[in-house]
Amino acid sequence: MPGLYLSALTLSHFRSHESTRLELDCRPVAIFGPNGAGKTNLLEAVSMFSPGRGLRRASAQNMALRPKAIGWKITGLLHSLHQAHEIEIWSEEGASRQLRIDGKTASQTVLGRLARVLWLVPAMDRLWTEGAEGRRRFLDRVTLSFTPSHADASLAYEKAMRERNRLLKDQVRDGHWYVALERQMAEAGIAINVNRDRALAQLATAQSEAETAFPAAELELTMTDGEMPATVSDFREALHESRFRDLAAGRTLVGPHRADLHAVYTTKGVPAAECSTGEQKALLISLILANARALTKDSGLAPILLLDEVAAHLDAIRRAALYEELGALEAQAWMTGTDAELFAELGDRARHLEVTESGAVIRPVFRAGS
User: Which residue segments constitute the domains of the chain, with CATH numbers given?
Assistant: First the structure.
């Protein structure tokens, strides 16, 4: 039995779900129904059980049911390391989301220690061909799954960099204004880089130790301009030396926010950006599965996986291989698709749910043992 899963999920005025309650067990959840019925909205709700802004990176205001927009609430019974925790996440009238764990106000870092949630959504299919920002976000989600404190380092870095950029835009040349900010950026930036490097190493190990139907990827962290300094003092010096150039640009041009993730299809030696669409999708699935295996080995907890429309893009052989790998992980994987037959071979290994068009009503589909 997996150590991490949701046994109950309730949505109130969240996206298309005015009032939805699911009773679950530790098995994967196969959700099917027509486009626009609210399947992905369910996955987005589950993604809120991890630090960050969820799989759509939406504001709290945009998650509210329209046209009422009176606020929303998600509650769940989360089983983690043989303990059950009541998680409440809500927003009132567009305000920032709030979090309670077992009735007590908690931070997202605390939530990150209880739950690991990984996802793969169709928007990520363009990961290797679009800008570096999306790849940084992908890498940081992977890193956060291993190191919950990565969120704190990222927030500290972004806050200090915003202040520094404000000085640069205002053409402030007095160095005294920069010293404290650059010290904060250097400390947080080196932590970010160390965390990312460690995450890439864990992914590499997980890929090398597994036999899988999905292709492996060689990953490398690169910098848009030059190299990332190795130590805090080196980074502070780099920021100091870059001030003149940064003043001309009106923004900071050195640091982990300039990083990029480069991937190569291992057996072919071809950059991911030059692979076919199908190969790029297979590489992404491989990385998500490697991330899950590494987390399971590292913490003893198989993460919750959110796989939106993943089965529709796989042939029957790879689809069966994916289901076998999910079973071996003993992960509660939430999968969506328009056709129930995509999940037929899962049988009673999964909980099958149909989402209808009429108000996104959830209707369980009873199969043998379901």
Answer: 1-116+301-370 (3.40.50.300), 127-299 (1.20.1050.90)
